[in-house]
Amino acid sequence: MHQTQTQTQHRGVGRRSMVALWGFGLIEAAVAQSGSPWLQPVAAGKAGERSVAEWLERMHEASRRRNYVGTLVVSSNTGAMSSARIWHACDGRQQLERVESLTGTPRSTFRRNDEVVTFLPEARVARTERRESLGLFPDLLKSSESSIPEFYAARRIGSDRVAGFAADVVHLMPKDQLRYGYRIWSEKKSGLVVKLQTLDLDQVVLEQAAFSELQLDAPVRADKLSQMMTATGGWRVEKADAAKCSAAAEGWQLRAPVPGFKAVNCYKRPGAAATEGNIQWIFSDGLAAVSLFVETYDAKRHQQEGLFASGATQTLTQRVQDWWLTAVGEAPPQTLRVFAQNLERIK
Question: Tens digit of pLDDT for each residue in 67-77?
Answer without folding.
Answer: 999 999 999 99
